[in-house]
Specification:
The complex is a heterodimer. Chain A is of the alpha+beta class. Chain A contains 9 helices and 23 strands. Chain A is 19% helix and 39% strand. Chain A is globular, with a radius of gyration of 24 Å. Chain B has 2 domains: 215 residues, PmbA/TldD fold (2-Layer Sandwich), CATH 3.30.2290; 234 residues, no CATH class. Chain B starts with 5 loop residues before the first helix and ends with a strand. Classes of the chains: A alpha+beta, B alpha+beta.
Chain lengths: 483, 460
């Protein structure tokens, strides 16, 4: 397959391209949903196709189509012609030619390390696990939906570029989760485990799914979802907030990750997702957070959903600081954008959704480094009336990623140094840098976990990408709550 | 070319149904051709000519293992993106393997038989629209923005789509549609001032007035160069169609469907048949409309018809698919997603019926309020009252004594859509196809709402 990718690249150069890269991509997935004990959705998609990207006359051209694996040789000549024509036709409208950061022609292979191949596990075992998880949430009349789901993905990609890159990658990820919805007292409340968005996901094998021990959490989810229907609304006003990891990951994603994408900073996402307050003149000096806030981007971290060998521009994965002791120090970049902050090389964060889309900058795994607190000590150190909140319910943020408003599934008032009364629908609102500056404590490594985001949307037309965010619970002062 | 002719597609799918050993089989093929040029102040940035297929095979095995011995079905689906024999054979086998381990579901309705669906077709001018023609729209946008000291960004896109469904009960339907869209966000350099947005979405690209789209966005951006601060609070608002759309799409995704209704998480629960809203409000779903037609059948091949959702201020029953119709004792309204699916039926071509007021008349009736061009990142906090939050974007203006006044900085609203609709005091007369950040489109006019609640502000 790599030979054919190279042939396509050569064909593109012959057709007049100044640069070309080709991705041949096979995607296999399995997805099962058991609802109220019955299999509700059983789906097993597979996909195979080619994406050809060329640069000609300072403009990009991209063409993509599905084909059988045995017919790649017949399919690529037409795609090359179409991609070159696209670039040719739109180039006169470019105001300035594209510039690409230098890159070596890497030759290599990357395969996600896994314990047990999730696709080799018998179907019956998978469905039995989900049925048991769904059943574990039964037993209360107020419960209206008990859902357990499993999602597996294997993506194989062959990449070649006109700079000599020849790459083969096999990325495997596994994920599962469950949720219980109850309706009573005029309200509907959901509890999820281990997180929203269908659970948690890792670049890992079946061992990750088994390690979630779904069935151990059914009764708790059921009882919490019922109790939430009768709990008081989280009190309005200004309170100290401790966020759990499965909520803090979304805070990282929305208020640090997206504003850190350099194409967005330069206004190239303004047609849909928006701009960024983290503009380039702030790099190196801007106080993004408190001294306790250290955020690291890392496309090599074990288990991360964007852990890989190379990005879709054939740039090797890496790790770099984004916020160091509260100071803004790094961006997510691509070969097209690195030069705008005087960096010679891309950070390797250009990714496409499969073979069908051209690559754009996507945040990679971005994590809050652990601090020094144990969770119990942190709660004990926090005043009465503070709120501990966890698990994403809803989220919204302005187009420069400043004003955000998030609601969690559950919260507890802190009383006498312990988690006390349950509160419903904690909704907190703030301004991103002010929020991160108000952080005065982060829990230690024993509380740190990596949370997968399977549904990040960006681009226009929108593309979906996956990444992870590591976090342990952290405390924020003077946060505004509303209901 | 990804789109298959109707006869070719029907023959391909009949062949798959014929070779299936399942008791019931349904095969659906969806094909898409998509060409787009995305652009920013540097000109075209992402430019693609692409196509794809999705072939879906749904099989059912009777619980007793014998044809006709109905004790429920074991059902599953597998899909593939290529149409070669090997991929199709593997996909069929995967579907059969999955169905073997599914438990029997007696709530499933036998697959529907022969039906007729209205003729539909993709628009030839949209299919033939070139990259060069898209580039000419973009040149217009760049030139107009540069002349006003603004930065441009947007998307020019043409898409054609076909869908064919054949099942073992004799159903064989085919449909096609097309979409052409052009958008421009015109912003002050570096995003320091305000911005303006316009988008035109049509079926036939010949009806797309790119110059008018550019003119609207640039004019809005020029009005919005120096927005001033405004206090959050309750205001009478006039929402332009792009703002109306991002609210109503949550009623589509979380309210009008029978699953949410059955599981008590819909705003319809306890409200169907009640006169709760102004008489002037009428909502319906109509994929067969002439303005912007959708597919003429749903995910089970059931023909689409117009479905009333809110008439004369009274909410109607939810939309259904075959299974939820049976479960709730309602008619099947033809709103199934491709089955089996963990999500319930949904509307796809939501209309807010036009009223009798021009935008100027809606504004003219406001003593002290706000004109909102668009909402950004709207999301749902609570489903029973459809409590939503989101930010204004791309032009928010004071309305003072019936006139548009100064531009204001963006605000966050937190508001129940049910309560908002109860306070509608005017509906515009001009329909637009309007989208939103999280996908989906609504055909709607502008709307005036009293006591709309803004809960915080932002820096710009």
């Amino acid at each position: 397959m790599l030979d054919q990718a190279h042939q396509a690249v050569s064909e593109a150069l012959k057709a007049g391209a100044d640069y070309a890269d080709v991705r041949i991509n096979r995607l296999c997935q399995e997805r099962y949903v058991v609802r109220d004990g019955s299999l509700e959705e059983a789906e097993a998609p597979e996909d195979f196709g080619i994406g050809v990207r060329v640069m000609k006359d300072g403009a990009w051209g991209f063409a993509a189509a599905p084909c059988a694996a045995s017919e790649v040789g017949d399919a690529y000549p037409g795609l090359v012609r179409r991609a070159v024509k696209v670039a040719h036709d739109v180039a006169p409208s470019r105001r300035e030619p594209l510039r690409l950061a230098a890159e070596d022609g890497h030759v290599g292979e990357y395969v996600t390390p896994i314990g047990q191949d999730p696709f080799a596990v018998g179907l019956k075992s998978k469905l039995d696990l989900l049925r048991s998880a769904s059943d574990s949430m039964s037993g209360h009349d107020d419960t209206v939906a008990r859902t357990a789901s499993l999602s597996l993905r294997r993506e194989e990609q062959w990449q070649a570029s006109s700079e000599g890159a020849a790459l083969h990658q096999v990325l495997v990820r596994s994920g599962a989760g469950m949720s219980c919805v109850s309706a009573a007292n005029g309200t509907v409340e959901r509890r999820s485990y281990p997180a929203s968005f269908g659970g948690n996901y890792r670049s890992a094998g079946w061992e990750f799914v088994e390690g979630l021990n779904l069935c151990d959490h059914g009764e708790r989810l059921r009882d919490e979802s019922v109790a939430l229907c009768h709990a008081p609304l989280c009190p309005e006003g200004e309170h100290t907030l401790i966020l759990g990891g499965s909520q803090l990951m979304l805070q990282i994603h929305e208020s640090v990750g997206h504003p850190n994408e350099l194409d967005r900073v330069h206004g190239h996402e303004v047609d849909l997702a928006g701009r960024s307050f983290a503009t380039t003149e702030k790099l190196g000096s801007y106080k993004y957070g408190s001294e306790y806030v250290n955020l690291v981007a890392d496309s090599t971290v074990a288990g991360g959903l964007d852990t890989r060998g190379y990005d879709d521009e054939c740039v090797r994965s890496g790790r770099w600081p984004v916020v160091e002791k509260g100071v803004f120090v790094g961006y997510h970049t691509s070969r097209e954008w690195a030069h705008t902050i005087d960096e010679e090389r891309s950070r390797g964060t250009a990714r496409a959704e499969g073979w069908y889309s051209p690559p754009i900058i996507r945040m990679t795994n971005l994590s809050l480094e652990p601090g020094t607190w144990s969770f119990d000590d942190l709660v004990a150190d926090t005043e009465d009336g503070a709120i501990f909140a966890d698990t994403v319910r809803t989220w919204s943020i302005d187009q420069r990623r400043l004003n955000f408003q998030f609601t969690t599934e559950i919260g507890w008032e802190i009383q006498d140094g312990k988690l006390g009364k349950l509160v419903r629908r904690p909704t907190y609102q703030g301004r991103s840098p002010d929020f991160w500056r108000s952080c005065d404590a982060v829990c230690d490594e024993s509380h740190w976990d990596l949370w997968g985001v399977p549904n990040c949307g960006k681009g226009n037309p929108m593309q979906t990408a996956e990444m992870s965010h590591g976090a342990s619970p952290a405390r924020f002062r003077g946060v505004r709550f509303l209901n | 070319m990804a789109l298959l002719q109707s006869d070719h597609a029907l023959d391909l799918l009949r062949g798959i149904v014929d070779r299936s050993s399942a008791d019931q089989t349904e095969v659906t093929l969806e094909s898409v051709e998509d060409c787009f040029v995305r652009y920013a102040s540097t000109g075209p940035t992402q430019n693609a000519d692409r196509e794809r297929h999705q072939l879906s095979i749904r099989v059912r095995l009777s619980a007793g293992g014998g044809r006709g011995a109905f004790g429920g079905w074991r059902e599953a689906r597998a899909t593939c993106g290529t149409l070669d024999e090997d991929a199709i054979a593997r996909t069929l086998q995967r579907a059969l393997d999955l169905a073997e381990v599914a438990e029997s579901n007696s709530a499933l309705v036998p697959m529907g038989g022969e039906v007729e669906v209205p003729a539909s077709a993709a628009q030839r001018p949209t299919m033939d629209h070139t990259m060069g023609e898209k580039a000419s729209w973009i040149a217009l946008a760049l030139g107009s923005c540069e002349a006003q000291g603004l930065e441009a960004a947007g998307l020019a896109q043409t898409t054609t789509q076909s869908r064919t469904l054949v099942n073992s009960s004799g159903r064989a339907v085919h449909g096609a549609r097309s979409r052409a869209a052009f958008s421009l966000t015109a912003s002050s350099p570096g995003g320091e001032g305000g911005s303006g947005f316009a988008e035109t979405i049509v079926s036939n690209v010949e009806e797309l007035d790119a110059a008018r789209t550019v003119e609207r966005a640039v004019a809005k951006a020029c009005m919005n160069r120096t927005p001033e601060g405004v206090e959050p609070g309750s205001y009478t608002v006039v929402l332009e169609p792009a703002a109306v759309s991002s609210l109503l799409l949550f009623a589509e995704s979380h309210g009008f469907g029978a699953r949410e209704f059955k599981e008590q998480s819909s705003f319809l629960c306890g409200r169907v048949g009640e006169r709760l809203f102004p008489d002037s409000l009428r909502l319906y779903d109509d994929p067969l409309n002439d303005l912007y037609p959708g597919m003429p059948f749903d995910g089970e091949g059931t023909p689409k018809v117009r479905k009333e959702l809110l008439v004369g201020g009274v909410l109607c029953d939810p939309v259904t698919d075959s299974r939820l119709a049976l479960a709730l004792g309602l008619p099947n309204t033809g709103h199934a997603r491709p089955q089996p699916c963990a999500e319930g039926p949904t509307t796809t071509s939501l209309f807010l019926a036009p009223g009798h007021s021009s935008l100027e008349e809606l504004i003219g009736g406001v003593e002290n309020g706000l004109l909102v061009s668009q909402f950004h990142y709207t999301n749902m906090i609570e489903p029973r009252d459809l409590t939503l939050t989101g930010m204004t974007r791309n032009g928010t203006f004071r309305i003072e004594r019936g006139q548009i006044g100064a531009a204001v900085k963006n605000l966050r609203f937190t508001m129940s859509l049910v309560r908002a609709l109860q306070h509608v005091s005017g509906v515009g007369s001009t329909l637009e196809v309007a989208g939103a950040l999280f996908d989906g489109e609504v055909i709607c006019p502008a709307m005036r709402i009293d006591n709309f609640r803004f809960t915080s502000a932002t820096d710009f």
